[in-house]
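sry for the spam today, last one i promise. struct tokens for design, 1397 residues
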């Protein structure tokens, strides 16, 4: 200790002496009084430390004064003195005699231009700019590096120059390091914590907090520092929900709405203090983590003042930890006290810091010690000085290195940087005492900057406890490779303050690519980020430019948002969706099915973003948990077609009266069938069995409702006189009808136009309104009295009263939604925004109200609200099931929620409550609808009033033949349900009446695909895929081959080469040909007929094929089981009955698809095209073939049992091979069909059909065709030695004793036994002349006698052998009437191959 104190005293004295003798000390003497110019200019004179035998030099610019060049910056004075103090320690050490280091410090007056000027002056002083030709052999001190100014602005000015130079630059403050990093200055050395170091500490802290989601608050300058912070966090898989500037007008609201419970601020100390002291900020229950942009630390006083006493906010300050340097403090005060009168710099310091004057300044050492505050960069400049000193020691110890750095060069810079990377300097006794024992090392940071080890960053948590601030150190991060991290245990409150990035969030790494969408078509109610969304699709605009709102039903989107907003409040006792927040997104489809499909496909497959209320809202695939659709017509059908494809597991809630078996679209609206049944029951009750229909044919909803009515009318005793299209050309319609009752399926406007025409008729006609025609009076107010007694059949009114009241009181100020503002602007002709003022020319007042009476009954709005409520109830049930704690969304809900919501919606009941109204005056004489009846499926029709016609007389409308005719006589078998097209003369006007009247078949549906088969083949979408041409060619070739085989068999049968019952083989060939033909239907585009053919023929073809194979396998098994007895005989018709049963079951199952009303719809697979597609889903198609799968298993089982039977040319072997291969193909195609995209499913089925059909054709008919083409039957003389041949050649021989005749052993149906030994399907008949002359009788013992031996028998030989036999033994030839007969020579003893039975 004594030695250490002696060393300190010696060094201090030496440094004081050095200061006193330095002739170049900045402003060494005070200039003469009054010489202001010289005094101001003298501040730019550099401060130099030039030891004897100085070999190396460092220097740079320092902001000693403020920009007025008079106000001193005391902390900078400390920094320069600290460098001098460190250099004195180094230079006074005898071991560093060859590595003495000097300093050049120029004042910049805190001005950016002067920082560059002073730096250049320093570089000139060391010959940096000297040309190579002017350099001397004995240069002065060698340049080791340039010191960057500590302020950000000056460093940016200098950094611009350094980007094109190769000078090592050292930064000892966080601000200067940030500037150099931002400009990407190479060869930067940092001895102060960089932003990257603070972020590394933050990453360790987030790991301790077990969190990975933050919200960033910056100063709004869009600084690259913030970008680097976000990028570094993202690399560590810590996500940023959003970045909010501190000047945001709703900063507190934005932070409160954020998903993150942790806020990370990238601000300086002043900005931080001003932000967290705001009441709206400190009242939040969040965790605020501060990253200082300028490396500032909160002192004890600031730590106690940063939080309000009522603050709920908790703050964690990441700040550098400074090393206390008492030895430097003593030295610095001693220098001041002893030399302040001699040097202008020190004089200015004491005057400014200690309030001294030129005439009176008494400095007390104790007072100076108490007022001393160590600069936050003092430790950093000392480390920087020793870093260059260590480099000087390494270079000075090597003559080669000294030569390399004799002049500034890129090679010298590389040497310096590499030396720093390998430096491992240990502070010793001759170095500053506070650093003794520490090691100085450098490593590359994340931005390639060389960082000094040993820099410490602390995480101090500040929170209120009983109204008083408490400070706790959570973490200590010390730089190094690797860094040293010391953590403290967390409080229980901190453990609860977790911030986890939920799945399907745009900021959680889910959206590397974003698609920007039109913000004028996407509207998020209460715009902010939500974890999940419910999307509503509406036809808000129409027309080619998507600007018209003429047909907009504003009640539909209002019902959607009102239901979402009030759902929890409407059922408070149920605690629905507790802690679960979701957004309601409205999408304008512009009355286009394609736009609607694109919106849904985009939501399911892509991340898309739109701007609203100054926020970028991003939607991630999978975050949309459901869709609500209020689209019309084709748009709705196209949307339902997409959901029926099974490409999404989200549910669709609609207000469609067509309840189909799509299983993914749900509606609360009573089905068209229920409404039609209620109407028919009422018509029957009123004896109105003969009616006229007025139809808006161009309105899909009216047309669909009419079709439901038309299908049921005849069975319920109601006859349609005529169907009048009132959708166009109303002036040409006939006045009056032939019936007393007219049922109107039309829009309200078309119904009003029709009634205005019907008013001119003198006939007393009752009009029954269906669908939207209920609101006809809105468009024909002047004729309301003329149509009292009008009946309307409508779904029960379920609209909430509070919704109607809300609509009546809503103004643009109370509903600031852009879609609603657009509607108000269109209706009132005024502008609600400056953008719209150019269009309308005047501004709205903001108090404009809706005229709710003009919106009519709003039936769809009520049922849309009911459907959305059902969806939310289902979501609440699934949420409570998967997330029992109900503390927000859980991972299970994200992963399984959509599917379980869909399954839950399938269990909901279907509404069927229908009300019947009569349009009549009330007690005050005002006309309105009054209920007179109610109908439900369970209770039927219940009348609660009596219908009274306006005339008072009862109205009847009955059909009295032959004066009337029903048009519901369509025959399903004659007119299948695929489509119908009216011929031209039916579509035109009737020449006799000039009316536009046409009759609608009862079982028809409108075709939307092609007008002819030729158009289907030549202009179909199938031509867009080149592989379809290859499949067509291959299928055609295989069909030709299969038909050729069939013709060959038929020809051989006709020529009696093949005899016997070949019906099973021919049936199998027909089934194979049917499989090939079925492949054509999967190649061409889907229409209703094609879709039915696909599902019916696919199963039918396989049923025939595998049915024949099962029958054959059973046939062969029975033959083997019956053995050698002749008393048992199984008729061939038994196997035909088995085949008929198998195929009949398949036909019965196929009737379900034949009777399906609609098998095709308009669908979109991608967002680029729209075309017809089958409504049959992929799972339904596979299940429709489940019976075929059973047949395959049965065939495989039987053929496996029969694998050792060698009858009929070992046919069981080929049956087993074919069945096994088909089984493997089925497993493969079913698996692939369920997994691949929709575009390639038909191709998979085509390939499967071709492969299976070809396998069956090749394995089961290939060997037989080979025999037919290569062999021919011949009759030869029977030889005794031929009964026991010793080998079989190609075919298996007969058994030694005859077996019982069965369909397996003989293809003939004749029960008599013969001596023929052939058992092949293609064996010759025994009815030849020779064989009939010598029949073979079977003895009771089963053996043959000589007398019973035949003279001739039939054998199969290759055609070449037959010709040789004929030429060689021509004289022994015996002829039969139908085939060649060859007498075998007696000398031939070899075995003759026979065709075994």
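last one done:
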């Amino acid at each position: 200790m004594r030695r250490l104190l002696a060393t300190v005293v010696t060094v201090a004295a030496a440094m004081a002496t050095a200061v006193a003798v330095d002739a170049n000390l900045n402003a060494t003497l005070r200039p003469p009084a009054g010489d202001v110019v010289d005094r101001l200019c003298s501040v730019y004179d550099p401060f130099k430390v030039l030891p004897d035998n100085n070999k190396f030099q460092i220097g740079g610019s320092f902001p000693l004064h403020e920009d007025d060049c008079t106000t001193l910056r005391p902390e900078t004075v400390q920094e320069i003195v600290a460098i001098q103090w460190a250099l004195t320690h180094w230079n006074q050490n005898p071991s560093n005699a060859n590595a003495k280091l000097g300093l050049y410090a120029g004042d910049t007056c805190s001005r950016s231009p002067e920082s560059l000027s002073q730096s250049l002056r320093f570089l000139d002083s060391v010959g940096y700019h000297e040309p190579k030709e002017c350099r001397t052999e004995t240069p002065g001190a060698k340049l080791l590096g340039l010191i960057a100014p500590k302020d950000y602005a000056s460093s940016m000015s200098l950094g611009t120059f350094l980007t094109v130079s190769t000078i090592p630059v050292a930064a000892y403050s966080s601000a200067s390091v940030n500037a150099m990093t931002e400009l990407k200055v190479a060869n930067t050395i940092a001895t102060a914590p960089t932003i990257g170091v603070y972020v590394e500490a933050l990453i360790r802290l987030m790991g301790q907090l077990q969190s990975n989601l933050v919200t960033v608050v910056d100063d709004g300058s869009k600084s690259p520092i913030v970008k680097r912070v976000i990028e570094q966090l993202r690399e560590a898989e810590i996500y940023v929900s959003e970045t909010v500037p501190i000047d945001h007008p709703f900063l507190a609201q934005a932070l409160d709405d954020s998903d993150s419970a942790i806020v990370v601020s990238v601000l300086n100390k002043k900005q931080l203090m001003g932000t967290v002291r705001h009441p709206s900020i400190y009242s939040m229950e969040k965790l605020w983590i501060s990253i200082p942009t300028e490396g500032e630390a909160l002192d004890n006083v600031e730590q106690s003042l940063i939080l309000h006493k009522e603050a709920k906010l908790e703050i964690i300050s990441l700040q550098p930890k400074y090393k206390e340097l008492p030895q430097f403090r003593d030295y610095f005060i001693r220098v001041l006290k002893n030399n302040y009168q001699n040097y202008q710099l020190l004089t200015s310091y004491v005057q400014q810091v200690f309030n001294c004057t030129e005439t009176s300044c008494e400095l007390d050492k104790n007072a100076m010690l108490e007022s001393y505050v160590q600069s936050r960069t003092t430790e950093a400049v000392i480390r920087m000085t020793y870093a260059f000193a260590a480099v000087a020691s390494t270079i000075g110890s090597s003559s080669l290195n000294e030569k390399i750095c004799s002049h500034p060069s890129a090679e010298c810079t590389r040497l310096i940087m590499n030396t720093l990377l390998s430096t491992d300097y240990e502070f010793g006794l001759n170095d500053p005492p506070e650093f003794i024992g520490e090691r100085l090392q450098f490593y590359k940071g994340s931005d390639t900057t060389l960082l000094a080890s040993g820099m410490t960053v602390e995480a101090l948590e500040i929170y209120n406890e009983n109204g008083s601030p408490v400070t706790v150190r959570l973490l200590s991060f010390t730089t190094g490779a690797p860094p040293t991290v010391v953590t403290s245990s967390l409080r229980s409150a901190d453990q609860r303050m977790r911030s986890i990035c939920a799945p399907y969030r745009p900021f959680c790494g889910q959206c590397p690519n974003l698609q920007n969408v039109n913000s004028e078509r996407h509207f998020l109610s209460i715009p902010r980020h939500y974890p999940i969304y419910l999307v509503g699709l509406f036809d808000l605009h129409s027309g080619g430019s998507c600007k018209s709102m003429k047909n907009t039903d504003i009640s539909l989107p209002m019902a959607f948002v009102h239901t979402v907003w009030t759902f929890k409040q409407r059922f408070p006792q149920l605690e629905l969706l507790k802690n679960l927040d979701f957004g309601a997104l409205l999408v304008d489809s512009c009355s286009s099915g394609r736009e609607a499909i694109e919106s849904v496909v985009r939501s399911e497959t892509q991340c898309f973003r739109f701007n609203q209320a100054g926020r970028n809202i991003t939607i991630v695939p999978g975050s949309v948990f459901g869709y609500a659709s209020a689209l019309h017509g084709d748009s709705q059908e196209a949307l339902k077609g997409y959901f029926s494809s099974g490409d999404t597991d989200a549910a669709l809630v609609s207000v469609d009266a067509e309840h189909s078996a799509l299983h993914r679209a749900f509606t609360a609206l009573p089905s068209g069938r229920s409404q039609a049944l209620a109407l028919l029951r009422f018509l029957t009750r009123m004896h109105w069995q003969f009616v006229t229909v007025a139809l808006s044919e161009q309105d899909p909803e009216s047309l669909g409702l009419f079709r439901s009515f038309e299908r049921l009318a005849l069975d319920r005793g109601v006859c349609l006189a005529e169907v009048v299209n009132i959708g166009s050309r109303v002036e040409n319609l006939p006045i009056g009808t032939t019936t007393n009752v007219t049922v109107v399926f039309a829009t309200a406007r078309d119904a009003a136009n029709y009634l205005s025409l019907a008013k001119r008729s003198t006939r007393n006609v009752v009009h029954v309104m269906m669908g939207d025609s209920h609101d006809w009076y809105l468009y024909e107010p002047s004729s309301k009295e003329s149509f009292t007694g009008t009946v309307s059949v409508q779904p029960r009114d379920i609209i909430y009263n509070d919704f109607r009241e809300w609509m009546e009181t809503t103004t643009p100020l109370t509903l600031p939604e852009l879609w609603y503002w657009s509607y108000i602007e269109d209706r009132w002709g005024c502008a609600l925004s400056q953008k719209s003022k150019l269009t309308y020319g005047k501004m709205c007042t903001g108090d404009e109200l809706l005229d709710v009476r003009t919106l009519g009954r709003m039936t769809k709005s009520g049922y849309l609200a009911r459907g959305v409520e059902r969806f939310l109830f289902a979501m609440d049930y699934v949420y409570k099931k998967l997330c029992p704690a109900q503390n927000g969304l859980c991972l299970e809900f994200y992963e399984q929620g959509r599917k379980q919501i869909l399954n839950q919606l399938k269990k909901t009941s279907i509404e069927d409550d229908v009300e019947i109204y009569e349009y009549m005056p009330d007690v005050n004489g005002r006309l309105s609808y009054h209920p007179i009846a109610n109908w439900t499926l369970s209770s039927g029709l219940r009348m609660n009033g009596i219908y009274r016609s306006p005339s008072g007389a009862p109205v009847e409308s009955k059909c009295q033949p032959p004066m009337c005719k029903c048009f519901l006589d369509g025959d399903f078998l004659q007119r299948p349900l695929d489509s119908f097209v009216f011929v031209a003369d039916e579509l035109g006007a009737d020449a006799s009446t000039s009316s536009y009247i046409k009759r609608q078949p009862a079982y028809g549906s409108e075709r939307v695909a092609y007008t002819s088969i030729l158009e289907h083949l030549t202009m179909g979408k199938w031509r867009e895929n080149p592989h379809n041409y290859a499949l067509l060619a291959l299928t055609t070739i295989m069909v030709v081959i299969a038909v050729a085989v069939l013709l060959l068999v038929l020809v051989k049968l006709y020529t009696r080469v093949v005899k016997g019952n070949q019906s099973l083989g021919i049936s199998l060939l027909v089934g194979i040909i049917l499989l090939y033909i079925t492949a054509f239907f999967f190649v061409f585009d889907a229409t209703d007929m094609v879709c039915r053919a696909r599902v019916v023929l696919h199963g039918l073809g396989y049923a025939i094929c595998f049915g024949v194979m099962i029958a054959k396998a059973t046939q062969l098994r029975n033959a083997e089981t019956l053995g050698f007895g002749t008393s048992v005989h199984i008729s061939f018709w038994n196997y035909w009955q088995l085949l008929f049963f198998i195929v009949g079951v398949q036909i019965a199952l196929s009737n379900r698809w034949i009777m399906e009303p609609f098998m095709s719809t308009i669908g979109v697979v991608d967002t680029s095209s729209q075309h017809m597609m089958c409504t049959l889903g992929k799972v339904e198609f596979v299940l429709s073939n489940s019976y075929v799968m059973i047949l395959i298993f049965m065939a495989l089982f039987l053929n496996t049992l029969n694998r050792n039977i060698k009858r009929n040319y070992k046919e069981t072997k080929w049956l087993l091979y074919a069945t096994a291969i088909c089984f493997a193909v089925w497993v493969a195609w079913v698996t692939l069909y369920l997994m691949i995209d929709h575009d390639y499913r038909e191709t998979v089925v085509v390939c499967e059909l071709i492969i299976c059909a070809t396998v069956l054709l090749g394995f089961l008919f290939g060997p037989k065709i080979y025999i037919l083409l290569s062999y021919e039957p011949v009759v030869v003389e029977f030889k005794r030695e031929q009964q026991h041949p010793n080998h079989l050649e190609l075919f298996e021989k007969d058994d030694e004793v005859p077996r019982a005749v069965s369909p397996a052993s003989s293809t003939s149906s004749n029960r008599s036994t013969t001596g023929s030994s052939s058992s092949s399907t293609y064996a010759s008949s025994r009815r030849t002349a020779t064989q009939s002359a010598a029949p073979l009788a079977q003895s009771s013992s089963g053996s043959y006698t000589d007398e019973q031996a035949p003279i001739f028998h039939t054998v199969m030989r290759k055609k070449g052998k037959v010709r040789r036999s004929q030429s060689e033994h021509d004289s022994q030839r015996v002829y039969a009437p139908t085939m060649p007969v060859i007498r075998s020579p007696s000398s031939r003893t070899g075995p003759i191959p026979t065709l075994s039975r």
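The mean pLDDT is 79. ok im logging off now
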